[in-house]
Design a protein that fits this description.
The longest helix is centred in the N-terminal third of the chain and has 16 residues, at 67-82. By secondary structure, the chain is an alpha/beta fold. Strand 13 (293-299), helix 9 (306-319) and strand 14 form a beta-alpha-beta unit. It starts with a strand and ends in a 9-residue tail after the last strand. The chain has helices at 15-23, 67-82, 98-110, 152-160, 172-178, 193-202, 253-262, 278-290, 306-319, 342-353, 359-372, 410-424; strands at 4-8, 29-30, 41-47, 50-56, 85-91, 114-119, 141-143, 180-186, 207-208, 219-225, 228-234, 265-271, 293-299, 328-330, 384-392, 397-403, 432-437. It has three domains: 4-163, Rossmann fold; 172-351, Rossmann fold; 359-437, K homology (KH) domain (GMP Synthetase, Chain A, domain 3, 2-Layer Sandwich), CATH 3.30.300. The protein is 32% helix and 22% strand. It has a seven-stranded mixed beta sheet, with helices on both faces. A seven-stranded mixed beta sheet has the order 9-10-11-8-12-13-14, with helices on both faces. The radius of gyration is 25 Å and the shape is globular. One of its GO terms (molecular function) is GTP binding. Belongs to the TRAFAC class TrmE-Era-EngA-EngB-Septin-like GTPase superfamily. EngA (Der) GTPase family. Residues 3-167, 181-354 form the EngA-type G domain. Keywords: GTP-binding, Nucleotide-binding, Repeat, Ribosome biogenesis.
């Protein structure tokens, strides 16, 4: 699973700026629901071949006992508990404060790997002014400038060093050869994830046993159904002992994101009684961003009337339109209604994610699409699409080569996507199309 890095520090030291620098985007996932403040963000980051999750927290005041600062401190403590490594951000120009000492005392007692980052240190890399931060007792001080990017690379390298990450990234293609479908059940608290999991494990045709989780109490449950092996990556927390698997509906954004990253297929469970919320859209967006195959299921369908059902359908069309390639099922996990067809969609989504597409067929489809509808002209140039080949699996990637492809519109890419999806029956998986323009051999000659 992806390691987790938490950014902590007192207010206005530049944590959010550093977060945006690490994630290379301001479109971080916002966990906007009861118990978490809006200034707590989760995002993906990459350093070399290693990917990791970054948590941006609010201003941390460990001694706060009342008001919003106490709530922010509570959430920061939870972020630190979820993290593999903590980056303690201080203000290099303001110097050490009493609040910095309180935070340092809190982090030292935890004993979790911690890196001290002195932000706003433009031109201060060799300054004696940074020496005062050594009194915090957290080792070497890493001078950085989040706004300018100075020292950030060294900071990340030092933060990831104690985690002993593998040298080679996991190969998604090799997973297909094992024949085991890694399935994650994701969704908000109380949507029925636990009920659905327990219903699956209670079926007579399922063979299930416990397997201790790899990191931070994550638990996988291998089981077999009609000869197909699955590995359920649980986001709710299954009890390891006992005859009955009891799920703990204690929602953790980090564990859900890690489960999505580890899976081949994600079953996104929605609650018919609550409709499609912002949190559902955030989780769905992360699934799409991660490139995972997905199946949608609306639980508690038996508990709503026809008017509410129509409202939910419209919400899905409006808020989850970007997942229109996924199968949708109407179920009741408690009454075991509609859960049988889920398995067919899960298998189909997995198959689509690892579909192999030959270059001759892709190129033929590309030429047929161009003959049916050419891309729009941009000024004096009309993009020329010459040939296509497959560039990856899980999710499938199609690489199109030609000239002036930077002028191909998003609408035309969606048109091509529709043609490719129909030919290869790519139901349940995202499809990415990359445009690569051929280099003009005479461009550098006078």
């Amino acid at each position: 699973m992806k390691p987790v890095m938490a950014l902590v520090g007192r207010p206005n030291v530049g944590k959010s700026t550093l977060f945006n620098r690490l994630t290379k985007s301001r479109d971080a996932i916002v966990a906007d629901f009861a118990g978490l403040t809006r200034d707590r963000h989760y995002g993906n980051a990459r350093h070399g071949q290693h990917e990791f999750i970054v948590i941006d927290t609010g201003g941390f005041e460990p001694t706060a006992e009342t008001g919003i600062y106490m709530e922010m401190a509570k959430q920061t403590r939870q972020a630190v508990a979820e993290a593999d490594v903590v980056v303690f951000v201080v203000d290099a120009r303001a110097g050490v404060s009493a609040q910095d000492h309180d935070i340092a005392n809190f982090l030292r007692k935890l004993g979790k790997p911690t890196v001290l980052a002195a932000n706003k240190a433009e031109g201060m890399q060799d300054s004696a002014h940074l020496a005062e931060f050594y009194e915090l007792g957290l080792g070497e001080v890493e001078p950085v400038s989040a706004s300018h990017g100075q020292g950030v690379r060294n900071l990340v390298e030092k933060a990831l060093e104690p985690l002993n990450l593998p040298e080679e990234p996991e190969d998604g293609a090799s997973e297909a050869e094992t024949g085991v479908i890694k399935l994650a059940v994701a969704g908000r608290p109380n949507v029925g994830k636990s009920t659905l999991i327990n219903t699956w494990l209670g079926e007579e045709r399922l063979v299930a046993f416990d397997l201790p989780g790899t990191t931070r109490d994550a638990i996988s449950v291998p089981f077999e159904r009609n000869g197909q092996r699955f590995e359920l990556i649980d986001t709710a927390g299954l009890r390891r002992k006992g005859k009955v698997f009891e799920a703990i509906e204690k929602f953790s954004v980090v564990k859900t994101l890690q489960a999505i990253e580890s899976a081949n297929v994600v079953l996104l469970l929605l609650d018919a009684t609550q409709g499609v919320t912002d949190q559902d859209a955030h989780i769905a967006g992360y699934i799409l961003e991660s490139g995972r195959a997905v199946v949608l299921a609306i639980n508690k369908w038996d508990a709503v009337d026809e008017y509410e059902r129509e409202t939910v359908r419209r919400q899905i069309e409006a808020r989850l339109a970007f997942l229109k390639f996924a199968d949708l099922h109407l179920i009741s996990a408690k009454k075991r209604q509609g859960i049988g067809p889920l398995w067919g969609s899960i298998a189909q989504a997995y198959k689509a994610a690892f579909t192999k597409m030959t270059t001759p067929v892709l190129t033929r489809l590309l030429h047929e699409a161009v003959q049916f509808q050419q891309p729009k002209r941009s000024g004096m140039f009309r993009p020329k699409l010459r040939y296509a080949h497959q560039g990856g699996q899980n999710p499938p990637v199609i690489v199109v080569h030609g000239n002036s492809l930077e002028h191909v519109t998003d609408a035309y890419k969606r048109f091509l996507e529709g043609r490719f999806r129909k030919e290869f029956n790519l139901v349940g998986t995202p499809l990415r199309i990359e445009m690569r323009t051929s280099k003009n051999p005479y461009a550098d000659k006078e």
